[in-house]
Amino acid sequence: MREQHLHALLHHLPAGVATLEGSDLRYGYLNKAMQELLGKSVAEGQCVTDHPGVLPPDLVDVLHQVYRTGTAYVAKACSLPLPAHNGQEAVSRCYDLVLEPVYDDEQEITGLVLFAVDVTTQEEARQRAHTLAMETRRLDARLRVLTETVPQITFSLDAAGIYEYVSPQWYYFTGQPPTADLNAIWPLLIHPDDRLRVLYQGDTARKTGTGWSYEYRLRRHDGQYRWMLSRALPELHAPDRPVFWHGALTEVHDQRELSDALRRGEAELRFLADSIPELIWTATAEGFIDYYNHYTGEYSGLTKEELGPTGWVNLLEPRKQAEAARQWVQSVATGEPFEGLFRMRRHDGQYRWHIIRARQLTDERGPRWFGACTDVDDQHRLREVLQVQYDELARTNRDLDTFVYTASHDLKQPLFNLRGLFEELRRSATFNDPEEEQLISMVDDSLHQLDSTLQELAATVQDQRGLSAPAEQLDLRHITEDVLLGLRAQIQASGATVHVEVAEAPTLLYGRANLRSVLHNLLSNALKFAHPERLPVITLRSYLSAADHPVLMVQDNGLGMRVPKASSTAFQPFTRQHPQVGGSGVGLYLVQRILTSRGGRLEVASTIGEGTTFTLHWFEA
User: Fold this and answer.
1) Which backbone phi and psi does 209 adopt, to 5 degrees?
2) Is this structure's pTM higher than 0.85?
3) Radius of gyration of the chain (CA)
4) Where is the PAS domain (predicted)?
């Protein structure tokens, strides 16, 4: 009965139990746990050597050795592959295997008892603990490397203020030997003026269980005191009070001196701003004014409190305040500069014109606005007077142009009458004068010259009226071909060759009438002043200057000319260098006028008898 009860207990025991009988170690008894471990292929009476189940071969060898020697053996955390169960994949679990020999009454070994205890959970926990310990050591080593390589002094101290650790940087900075008593030396290296404050702040923080952040001067190895920023935080383990503080010392000497210099610079700038007879102000990133110079109060007659954060807007004309405020809000939102011309009220109630400008500056302190209101009332009124005078002069000039243009046309009729009368006299009257033919030729030339002069005068006035023609993007080759089409008769008569090279700068933003006039005058002059001993060759080339501005060059092989030294007054109206060639002397004057009126200039290079080169810089004054 007792044996049955023992078998029942062993059968339901969570640990595996098996008996191995005889020298060949046959399975004698297998409880439920051991049967599940070894698998269904193992049964009582079988030899363990032939049917080891999940037992590895080396463990089977150990079983035989224990049987022979009679020495018990324990295999810790032995990994055994469990057989597949209910269609699940086979897995390995860890077992502590205990091998105990069994003796009979004569103390002879009759077999073994095998115990298998599942320690998988404990082994996994041990492995995790081991991994965590390794990771902790790795992180600790990394943290130590980091703390000892950063350009800061790191430290740890306890609640009593005793330093438990300080990084090597402290010894490098102070020049103290590693054997020095850290807790005794450290306070002595603090500047005497800062020592009491530092000790008090440190003690207070430790008593209250809080961190600290303060600056003080610490003596360096060369004897200089350098400003240091000390920061520390307590090591908290709730609900206990902190027992350690960990922190760092950072040298801020240069930053402190720079900050002091900035403060001095700001004070000097404010003094300078207060000395300027102009309204100077600054504003926050949101556009609210936080500073007015002294002159602003004098000009407005208001205090800084009365001016408020939008003071300069309130000083404007009431009907302009909304417009100025919208423009200011737009500038603040986009960061674009603010600029406007407004009338501002002075302390005596008079409104004066001011240019209001503001620019945004962004630095380490964030965006800020700097503005100024400049009194330009006298200049504005002077400009109005000058504008009236300019308008008067322009009107007078237009009237004069109209008079000249009308007079040139009105004089044509008397010229036609004179020419008709002269033709009638030449047809019907005779003179007994040996120089009759010469006189008649001279009169005819004079009439022809007068006619040409009147036509050129009218054309000059007409071209000058077109100096302000609107600019448009023009195709240089197309305009040139139109001009050459108008000069086709002269080109064919002279046998001239014209080369047009405008691929490098094919377009030009210019007035259409101005460009046609310039090209017509230069090309017609090149044909008119051709050398009598060779056919004309004319080259028109457009290219870009070093400053990326368009340039036009017109070159011929004609008679050449004398170029005056003063290029700004090179060509005057009705001035001619080749009297034998017909003309009025206004073509080059017109070219020069058109160029200078649009911010350009004309360069001339010429050799008498060889030719002339005109270089037109369209937009270089």
Assistant:
1) 75, 30
2) no
3) 55
4) 265-336
DSSP code string of 74-110: EEEEEEEEPPP-TTPPP-EEEEEEEEEEEE-TTS-EE
How far, in Å, CA of 583 to CA of 521, rounded?
Answer: 11
Task: Please provide residue 419's backbone torsions phi and psi, each rounded to the nearest 5 degrees.
Answer: -65, -40
In this structure, which amino acid lies at residue 473?
A: Q
**Distance in angstroms (rounded) separating the CA atoms of residues 284 and 488:** 70
- AA letter at 169: Q
Q: Residue 27 to residues 8, 69, 103, 385: CA-CA distances in angstroms?
A: 18, 20, 16, 128
**Average pLDDT score over residue span 249-275:** 76
DSSP state of 470: P
Q: What is the DSSP letter of 316?
A: B
Maximum alpha-carbon separation in the chain: 188
- pLDDT for residue 436 is more than 80: no
**Residue that the structure tokens 């046959």 belong to:** 26
Can you read off the two tokens belonging to residue 326? 């919208």
Angstrom distances, CA of residue 249 to CA of 154, 167, 169, 175, 231: 6, 10, 10, 16, 7
User: Which helix (H) or strand (E) element contains residue 235?
Assistant: none
Which helix or strand (DSSP H or E) is residue 14 part of?
A: none
Compute CA 602 distance to the chain's CA centroid, rounded to the nearest angstrom: 41
Whole-angstrom distance, CA of residue 11 vs CA of residue 119: 19
For the record, the structure tokens of 402 come out as 């109209």
198: helix, coil or strand? helix
Burial class (CB in 10 A: 0-12, 13-18, 19+), 511: buried
At 534 the three-state DSSP class reads coil
| CA–CA dist 148, 516 (Å, integer) | 80
- pLDDT (tens digit per residue) in 535-574: 999 999 999 988 888 999 999 998 888 777 654 446 655 4
The pLDDT of 67-94, averaged and rounded, is 79
What is the distance between the terminal CA atoms of the chain, rounded to a whole angstrom? 129
Q: Say what angle helices 436-465 and 412-428 make with each other, to 10 degrees.
A: 160
